Fold:
Amino acid sequence: SAVISQKPSRDICQRGTSLTIQCQVDSQVTMMFWYRQQPGQSLTLIATANQGSEATYESGFVIDKFPISRPNLTFSTLTVSNMSPEDSSIYLCSVDSVGLGEKLFFGSGTQLSVL
Amino acid sequence: DAKTTQPTSMDCAEGRAANLPCNHSTISGNEYVYWYRQIHSQGPQYIIHGLKNNETNEMASLIITEDRKSSTLILPHATLRDTAVYYCIVLRGANDYKLSFGAGTTVTVRA
Structure:
């Protein structure tokens, strides 16, 4: 299985600031994804982080609010910009496991609280 | 995508088998059944998946009915650490990433 390290594990931020979340995988993976899980809710896919090109965003999510980097096959960052209390969520990095079987692996998540 | 229906909650005695049902009556032929679980404040953990045959791994067994409209996840010997929310979802396989976990089943294992 892929080992995914996500940092920070939690943070408390002020309204209007930005937070960058890092995701490091212990092996090269083709596909990396960012999800959001609001309190008591299911996961929502934010975007697919594409290596060497712009991320692909899902409906309702835009690059200006959630810029994503993917400089190589083992690392990605998600920035939550100009935060508001509505951005308080768990943010999860995920990778597919093509070559290890057909399943997704998730990081431990970043619990974000915006005051 | 096929939607799934799971019971809201379930209690299980430690050391006993936990059988978690899932209905996916609109599943199509190329969709897989996946099970994940999420322990409070952690990322989802993959458990098992299958297409039409029953599957077993070190964590659990997955029994899929012949018509594929329902399945059962079996935790053979539940422990307190198995207390979590269990999600049954259907995916089209390696290229389907828009996971919709639904509410899942909250499993509480009691000593």
Q: What stands out?
A: The mean pLDDT of chain A is 90. Chain A is about 0% helix and 50% strand. The two ends of chain A are 36 Å apart (CA to CA). Residues 16 and 82 of chain A are 4 Å apart (CA to CA).
